[in-house]
Design goal:
homodimer, 331 residues, alpha/beta, 5-stranded parallel sheet, 4-stranded parallel sheet, 14 helices
Chain lengths: 331, 331
C-alpha cells in the first residue's frame, strides 16, 4: 500500500492505549481533590478535537460542568465561570502554540490547575502543565480517557470499565481501517485533488471533525479551498450553492445525529453529481461493542481520512509539511 | 439612495423598541416564577443570532445558566441539562421552521416553557409559544432585552436601565448607518459581486454574525460561495489559502476581541490585494455611551451590510427572495 508504515500506525495507537492508566490516575486525583468545573481550551485543530468530546458528553446524557473555550477568546475576554477551582485540560502536539501557552499562564495566574497532553518534550506546555501526559499519536486516547473518566466518576458513565477493556482493540482496528479505506481514498483523491472548492458536511461528534479536516488538512496542509458546514445548518443557507459539479464530502458517523447526514446525503445526491460519502459503518471494529461505535466514530473517520491525506499529498505533489505563512511569517 | 425606504427602516427598528417593555415583563415573570436554566434554540440564522448573545453574556461577565442549542441536534440528541424547569427562548421570522417547531414540541413534552419571538401570525410557533412577542423587524431588540434583563435580574448587569434608556436612539442611528455605509457597500459590491469565493472573518459577538451573513445572505440569497471563519481559528489553517487575488471581508466590531481582528487585518493585507474592512467604529452612535458600543456591534454591522445586500442583489440581478431548493424541494 502506497506510503503506509503499518508498524508506525499501530505503534501510535498503542502509545495512546499506554497513556490511559496514567490519564485515569490524574483524573481520579482531580476528582478526589474536588473541582468547580472543567475547561477544555484549544485553538484551531485542538479546539475542534475537544469540541468532539463536548458532543459525546451531551449524547451520553452527562451533566458534568464542562466548558469549551477558544484560547484566543479566553485570553482577551476570559470566562466568568472560570476560577481557581477550575481545571484546564489542553492538548497540544507542538507544545508551543502561542494562544494556548498564553491561556495556560492566565489560568495559572487565576490559581487553576492545568492538565496537558503534549507531544514535544521541553516545550512551554510540557513544562507548564501541572499534570502532564506525553507520548506520540495518543491524543484521542487522552481525550476519551479524561472525558469518560470524569463522567464515570460523576456516576454518569457506568460502562466505563467495559469501554476501556475494549478500546485496547483499537490499534489493530485502526490498522485495518487504513487498509480498507485506501482504495476509496485513492479514488476520491484521483477524482477531486484539483477541485476548486470542496464542501464538507458533518454532524454530531463529526461536525467539528469535518471542520478540522477541511481547515487543518485541506486548507493548511494542501492549500485546497474548503467550506465545512454542519448537516443541520447546511439546510439553512449553504444548500443553495450546491450545483451539479460541486464536490461534496459527507462525513457520516454513527451517533444519534446520523439522520441529519442521511437527509443531507439524499439532498446532495439529487443536485450534485460529485458526492463522496465516507461512512464509519463501512468499517468493522473487532472487540468493540455496538453501543460504543457511535462514540468512537471520530477515531474511525480520522483513520480513513489519513489515507485521503496520503493520496492528496501525492496527487497534488504537495507535501503535507509545507507551510507558506503559518509559523513562517510574523503576524 | 438606491432602493432605500428610510421610513420602513426606521419603522422596523421602532417596532423593535416597542416590544422592549412587553419582553421585559415576560422575563420578569419567568424570573419571578423561577427557572433552572435558559435554552436559546435555533437553526441556521436564528441559531447564529442567539450565538451573538452568548458572547455578549460572557464578555459582560455574567454567569446566568444559559445554553445554546441547535434545534436539529436538540430533537435527535436532547440535552441532559434540559428539563421541566428550563425555559426555551426562540426567535423565528417565518414561525414555521421545521426543526424549531419540532424542538418546541419536544420542550413542551418535557414540561418546559417557551418564549417566542415570531413575525408571522397564525404560524405554529406563533400558536405554540407560551409567551409570544410579535412585531416586524424587532428580532435584535427581543434578543437584547431577554438577555440583558436575565442578567440584570441576576444582579449581573447593573447598567440595564441606562442601556434601555439609550437603545431608543438606535432607530435613528440605524437610518444614518444605512446612509453612511452606502458608498462603501456599493464600492464593495461593484468590485466583488462576481467573486468566485469570498472569505469572511469575524470575532467575538460578530463571529457568528459573519457566519450568518456568509451563509444566510451570500449563500442562500445570492448563491455566492463563501468561507466564513473566526479570526482566532483563521490563523490555524485557513490563512494558508489566502493569495493575492482572494477576496476577504473583515468584519470588525468593538468588543474585547477586536485585537484578533487587527491581527487578521494586518496579515491579510500583507498577502491579499482584495481586502475589504467593515468596521463599526466608522459609525457614530448618537445617544449611546461608549461602554455599550461593543455590545451593539451586531446591530451596527447588520445595518451597514443591509446596503451591501441591496447592491449585490442589483449588480448580480439576483433578487434576494429567489430560492431554488430551500422550501421548494422536498428533502
Amino acid at each position: 500500500m502506497f506510503n503506509f508504515n503499518e508498524e508506525a500506525v499501530r505503534k501510535e495507537h498503542e502509545n495512546g492505549v499506554s497513556i490511559i492508566a496514567e490519564t485515569q490516575r490524574v483524573v481520579d486525583k482531580i476528582c478526589g481533590e474536588g473541582y468547580k468545573n472543567i475547561f477544555y481550551i484549544g485553538i484551531g485543530g485542538t479546539l475542534l478535537y475537544a469540541g468532539q468530546m463536548m458532543h459525546i458528553v451531551k449524547e451520553a446524557g452527562s451533566t458534568i460542568p464542562l466548558f469549551l473555550e477558544n484560547a484566543a477568546d479566553f485570553c482577551l475576554v476570559g470566562n466568568p465561570h472560570f476560577g481557581k477551582d477550575s481545571v484546564v485540560v489542553i492538548a497540544s502536539i507542538s507544545g508551543d502554540t502561542k494562544e494556548v501557552v498564553e491561556a495556560v499562564h492566565k489560568a495559572h495566574a487565576a490559581g487553576a490547575r492545568v492538565v496537558g497532553y503534549v507531544e514535544k518534550e521541553g516545550t512551554p506546555l510540557y513544562e507548564h502543565s501541572d499534570d502532564l501526559i506525553t507520548t506520540v499519536g495518543g491524543e484521542y486516547y487522552f481525550w476519551y480517557t479524561v472525558t469518560l473518566r470524569l463522567m464515570a466518576n460523576a456516576g454518569q458513565f457506568p460502562q466505563y470499565d467495559k469501554f476501556m477493556t475494549e478500546i485496547v482493540h483499537m490499534p489493530e482496528n485502526v490498522v485495518e481501517i487504513y487498509k480498507k479505506s485506501d482504495a476509496k481514498a485513492k479514488e476520491y483523491a484521483d477524482k477531486y485533488c484539483d477541485a476548486e472548492l470542496t464542501y464538507l458536511i458533518g454532524s454530531g461528534n463529526l461536525e467539528d471533525w469535518a471542520v478540522c479536516y477541511g481547515m487543518c488538512i485541506m486548507e493548511e496542509m494542501q492549500w485546497m479551498r474548503t467550506r465545512p458546514i454542519s448537516a443541520a445548518n447546511f439546510f439553512h443557507g449553504t444548500l443553495e450553492v450546491v450545483e451539479r459539479d460541486i464536490p461534496v464530502i459527507l462525513i457520516k458517523g454513527e451517533d444519534k445525529t446520523r439522520p441529519q447526514m442521511e437527509r443531507a446525503e439524499k439532498f446532495v445526491n439529487t443536485i450534485s453529481a460529485n458526492v463522496t460519502v465516507f461512512d464509519t459503518k463501512d468499517y468493522e471494529l473487532k472487540g468493540i461493542s455496538d453501543e460504543f461505535r457511535g462514540m468512537l466514530s471520530p477515531i474511525v473517520m480520522r483513520s480513513a481520512f489519513q489515507r485521503v491525506s496520503v493520496h492528496l499529498e501525492h496527487n497534488r505533489r504537495h507535501p503535507l509539511a509545507i507551510r507558506r505563512y503559518y509559523r513562517r511569517l510574523d503576524y
